[in-house]
Amino acid sequence: MTEKTESPSIESLSCPLPLQHQETIVMGHGSGGKLMHDLIAKAFVPAWDNPILRAGNDSGVVSSQEKNRLAISTDAHVVSPLFFPGGDIGSLAVCGTVNDIAVMGAQPLYLTVSFILEEGLPVETLERVIESMRVTAEVAEVQIVAGDTKVVSRGNGDGIYISTAGVGLLDDDVEIHGANAQPGDAVIISGTLGDHGIAVLAARGELGFQADLQSDIAPLNGLITDMLAASDKIHVLRDPTRGGLATTLNEIAGQSNTGIIIEEEKIPIKPEVNAASELLGFDPLYIANEGKLVAMVAPEEADKVLNIMQQHPFGKEAAIIGHVTDETQNRVLMKTLIGSHRIIDVLMGEMLPRIC
Amino acid sequence: MKYVSEYRDAKLVRALAEEVRDVVTQPWVIMEICGGQTHAIKRYGIDDLLPDEIELVHGPGCPVCVTPLAQIDKALAIASHPDVIFTSYGDMLRVPGSHQDLFSVRAAGGDVRVVYSPLDAVKIAQENPDKQVVFFAIGFETTAPANAMSVAQAKRLGLDNFSVLVSHVRVPPAMHAILSGEYNRVQGFLAAGHVCAVMGYWEYPPIAANYQTPMVVTGFEPLDLLKGVFEVVKLLESGKVEVTNAYARAVTFEGNKPAQDLINSIFQESDRNWRGIGLIPNSGWSLAPDYAAFDAEARFDVGDIHPEESPLCIAGEILQGLKKPTECPAFGTLCTPEHPLGATMVSTEGACSAYYQYHQPLEVQGLAND
Q1: A339–B10: do the CB atoms touch at under 8 Å?
Q2: Least CB-packed of A79, B47, B161, B224 within 10 Å?
Q3: Maximum CA pair distance of chain B?
Q4: Which of residues 72-131 of B touch A (CB under 8 A)?
Q5: What does R_g of chain B's alpha carbons equal in angstroms?
Q6: Count of H helices and E strands in chain A?
Q7: What angle do CA A28, A29, A34 make, to 5 degrees?
Q8: Structural domain total, chain A
Q9: Separation of alpha carbons B237 and B227, rounded Å
Q10: Which of A170, A200, A230 lies at the terminal end of a domain, its last residue?
Q11: Between chains, do B361 and A331 touch, taking CB under 8 Å as contact?
């Protein structure tokens, strides 16, 4: 019996398939063609699946809700490294926009996401970011309803840039904004300052020592919902991101035409953040946070709001750190540990480590 | 924070300020050498706790501030070179040269990197063999050991792409210069604790005796500073010319011998220009002949440097304790941390920056310092 040789099938004669480029991003992933559609179908849609996104149209169409006012915000995100203890550029991109909407007192519902990817980026890295965005959006109870991807040639990007925009609904009777601080209001911070900035520095390997510290990245809309349910005398909410608490308080003082006095001994700061700051010559008041809010609340409701905040996982270490005043002419002052007062100004340019 | 917050205890600080009040009987002018001390004094409002008789004037101990303009212009020229990775302590990036700063060089395409330690610069040199890596080695005795170590390390590793632009200065010659100045007002010194942690304070007694000026080695926390003031006022009031140590938890008379040996093996004493002050003989360090190959000034042709100071800036008088920042007509108006005319407005140790950041607004002075 002669050995039967299998006749070649028509499939095996077909010309070899072009490379799928499933492992790294190539320029074609931003071309609008098949590679891009495959990436969307395989990486984005399954992770963020919802009927609006699945429809695959040029815009996500959402049904109108019975609220007269919308809060809309947009935010671009660049961070190095892309992953750091406690978060990554994906969770940052979701929380950044969710928090900007939530601090107006609005309930964020929908996000759009634009990616700028650098040629050569491992697809696995992109998938990790997408998964992180999925998880964060789930915690924040928002849906990602539209997106876009562009690719830039190697060397012209930093791996991944993400821009997010979001829409939230705002009740008619909610008046929370930077110009609404009133003399006598208590100033409440939702937790420790500077965790994000120092965690990212540590992840860059720039501290020269190990820091066991996580970024504080968190969506704050749940915490804010609880606060608003407890009190209708919350006048200002804001998230002290870049520029830190000092810059945020100065913005509010300027917008509201009031002064603010905070007390150094009441400001919650983790010992490791304090230690790193002492060593590098940074001031935690100026270091970025990504999961903290500062609230100005009528004095009679301050303890109630504080109590509610402390019961929420993202507000456990909340503290009243000062008050709004009409005595200091739009200036932010801090009562130091030894009882003197000093001005807290806005951050000038880039924060630089000192020499010795 | 352990071992820090203890030295910021409000009750102890106030009690010590009271003790100063109890011993002082006449006006005294005391200079804190170090810019880090100036900042702590302004940040915590320590000068406000002191009796009116005591005037604190601010010394030249800000490494960024005294780095001469010519060196900064050289740094800018080297950093602009396409094959160079220029590394520096962060503070230096915003210091204005004659026409620009290192930030502008970076924005124009120069590879300028902030390092936290000069040893990081050595690492960058190892990782980039096709680039010339230059470290801007500035500072007082505090940064000298680490800067010296980077050169020793580079030599040991046989790196031919690492060099240092040296602008090192020393405290004792500056004390000489201030005390011998025609308009000197300083009657007592708070010597800089960090400098003495490296060098000890064996160099100071002859200076104290020569100029009949007591000195107290002083730390940086509020209690340290008040302790230093208290000790120097006691010496002044009793007419004793001594050098004492109020920072014994960090400083010994001899200092850190291995660090001094390292400095002495890599560097040699040399004349230095101090920005705003001028040439002070033997006031700095430059590379010793054995290490001349690591001198960036020799390695790069920096061309003709013609430094031009802002005619408005009075940093020199401020650094010698002759004037206060608020006596400068440009202070807070033409000269701000965003648009500095001189280095004293830039550095986290500069006196002008301390006054700008922490100055007490008039309307606040009525607030009780309780």
Answers
A1: yes
A2: B47
A3: 66
A4: 89-94, 103, 114, 116-117, 120
A5: 21
A6: 11, 13
A7: 80
A8: 2
A9: 15
A10: A170
A11: yes
pLDDT digits (tens, 9 = 90+) for A201-250: 888 876 666 667 899 999 999 999 999 999 999 999 999 998 899 999 99
- Segment A23-55, tens digit of pLDDT: 888 888 887 777 888 888 888 888 888 888 888
Residues A138-185: pLDDT tens digits? Answer: 999 999 999 999 999 999 999 999 999 999 999 988 999 999 999 999
* Cα(A144)–Cα(A148) distance, integer angstroms: 11
A26 close to A19: Cβ distance less than 8 angstroms: no
Q: Which two tokens stand for residue B344?
A: 């004293």
CA angle B268, B272, B276 (to 5 degrees): 155
We report the CATH number of the domain holding residue A335 as 3.90.650.10
Q: Are B320 and B181 in contact (CB under 8 A)?
A: yes
| 3 state SS of B347 | coil
Q: Provide the number of structural domains found in chain B.
A: 2
Pair A202, A290 in one domain: yes
Q: Which tokens go with A319? A: 């503290």
Determine how many CB atoms are found less than 10 A away from the CB of residue B259. Answer: 19
DSSP code, position A313: G
Please report whether residue A216 resides in a domain. yes
Distance CA B284, CA B10 (A): 39
Please answer yes or no on whether A356 and B142 come within 8 Å at the CB atom: yes
Nearest residue on chain A to B338, alpha-carbon basis:
A348
Q: What is the β-pairing status of strands A341-343 and B28-34?
A: unpaired
CATH code, domain with B267: 3.40.50.11740
* Kind of pairing between the strands at A87-88 and A332-335: unpaired
What is the phi/psi pair of residue B335, to 5°?
Answer: -120, 115
Domain CATH code at residue A135: 3.30.1330.10
Chain A residues near residue B363 by CB distance under 8 angstroms: 327-329, 331
Cβ of residue B362 closer than 8 Å to a chain A Cβ: no
Closest-CA residue in chain B for A282?
Answer: B348
Q: Which chain B residue lies closest to A206 (C-alpha atoms)?
A: B116
- Domain extent, residue B165, equals 1-311
Which of B184, B202, B193, B194 shows the shortest CA–CA distance to B243? B202
* Shared domain check, A191 and A314: yes
**What residues make up the domain containing A41?**
27-57+67-170
| Numbered residues of chain A with Cβ closer than 8 Å to any chain B Cβ | 206-208, 271, 274-275, 278, 280-281, 327-329, 331, 333, 336-343, 345, 348-350, 352-356
Give the pLDDT score at B364. Answer: 47
Radius of gyration (C-alpha) of chain A in whole angstroms: 24
Domain boundary among A146, A170, A194: A170
B366 in any annotated domain: no
Whole-angstrom Cα distance, residue B17 to residue B48?
A: 10
Backbone φ/ψ region at B210: left (φ over 0), alpha (ψ -120 to 50), beta: alpha
Strand order of the β-sheet with A341-343 is A234-238, A294-297, A186-189, A319-325, A259-263, A332-335, A341-343
Distances (CA, A) of B287 to A343, B122, B144, B258: 43, 17, 11, 18
From chain A, pick out residues whose CB is under 8 angstroms from the CB of B90: 352-355
A31 and A47, same domain (yes or no): yes
Which residues, given as ranges, of chain B have pLDDT below 50? 362-365, 368-370
Q: Is the ipTM of this complex over 0.90?
A: no
Integer Cα distance of A175 and B150 in angstroms = 58
Q: Judge whether B367 lies within some domain.
A: no
Q: Which residues of A touch B349 (CB under 8 A)?
A: 354-355
